[in-house]
Design brief:
Its main location: cytoplasm. The chain is built from 9 helices and 9 strands. It has 300 residues and is an alpha/beta fold. The termini are far apart. The protein has 2 domains: 167 residues, P-loop containing nucleotide triphosphate hydrolases (Rossmann fold), CATH 3.40.50.300; 113 residues, GMP Synthetase, Chain A, domain 3 (2-Layer Sandwich), CATH 3.30.300.20. The radius of gyration is 20 Å and the shape is globular. Helices cover 37% and strands 23% of the residues.
Length: 300
């Protein structure tokens, strides 16, 4: 008897959804940085637990949207939750019930009728046990969660118990993906996400959110290596200079870090070539949204 189904991870930006997804899957399939709002699309990671295949959907963080890209990201997050068999709400132990968590609790009323929703209190190592118990009680008083788990996605505490419970609750049925597949994102998009993560880590302030990376071409070579050409789109000339850096130092460092991670991830040599293009209106172009796995119409 096999089981399979979708589990959506929802929560505020930086709650630890991508970290939890990567730990569950056992490989890096979602962008993880210290900056908020880094996951833009619904990224699916596939984990096996016994005879159960768990397809995790790492959604963009739920926040108060200001522009088209923000609105499309929030729509993608709620859409991922509404399509899933089970939903895991992640909150940060040390932040407690924020205004953002309050908004999510209100939204759960619309999707929670037909599926079980569990609470995962993350980053438990940052607070005292009494604080955890109080937070758990307050959250469960506000919403009838099917279960509550205390976890540290970064360190792995409590993650196996959550994984076991999710596996036992998914419906019986055939697996949805081959057993050895860890993600359903095209490799071109994963490669672009890896480069964008390196840029996000390297750069500061508002720039990373006005920038996107696309894999323009992917050439398989006879020696088993691959050549990947990517374009980094920014909205103004000043941003292009920041991405390139003094004498090209920033773009060289980003390229080296992304190339090394891609080579490790794919288990073969990668030749990565980056170029930066100024596209003032990329945030209003449907094609850019499609490349990110978002629906342009959702941002209207």
């Amino acid at each position: 008897m096999t089981r399979a189904g979708f589990v959506a991870l929802i929560g505020e930006p930086n709650a630890g959804k991508s970290t939890l997804l990567n730990r569950m899957v056992g490989a890096k399939v979602s962008i993880v940085t210290h900056k908020v709002q880094t996951t833009r699309a619904r990224i699916r990671g596939v984990a096996m637990e016994g005879d159960t295949q768990i397809v995790f959907v790492d959604t963009p963080g739920l926040f108060q949207p200001r522009r088209r890209l923000d609105r499309a990201m929030v729509a993608a997050a709620w859409g991922g939750a509404a399509d899933a068999d089970l939903v895991v709400l992640l909150i940060e132990a040390h932040r407690g019930i924020t205004a953002g968590v309050e908004r999510i609790l209100e939204g759960l009323a619309d999707i929670g009728r037909d599926r079980k929703i569990v609470l995962a209190i993350n980053k438990i190592d940052r607070v005292q046990p009494e604080t955890l118990l109080t937070l758990s009680k307050e959250m469960n008083d506000r919403y009838g969660f099917a279960e509550t788990f205390m976890i540290s996605a970064e360190k792995g505490h409590g993650v196996q118990a959550l994984r076991d419970w999710l596996a036992s609750e998914l419906p019986e049925g055939p697996w949805l993906y081959p057993e050895d597949q860890i993600a359903d994102l095209p490799m071109r998009m994963i490669a672009a996400e890896i480069t964008r993560e390196k840029l996000t880590l390297r750069l500061h302030q508002e720039l990373p959110y006005q920038m996107t990376v696309e894999t323009e071409s992917w050439e398989e070579r006879k020696d088993g290596s691959a050549r990947i050409d990517q374009v980094i789109y920014v909205v103004r000339d000043g941003h292009k200079g920041i991405v390139l850096g003094h004498k090209g130092e920033t773009i060289k460092a980003v390229s080296k870090a992304a190339r090394e991670e891609l080579s490790e991830f794919l288990g073969r040599k990668i030749h990565l070539f980056l170029q930066v293009k100024v596209r003032p209106n990329w945030l209003e172009e449907a094609e850019r949204f499609t490349e990110m796995g978002l629906d342009f119409k959702d941002g209207a």
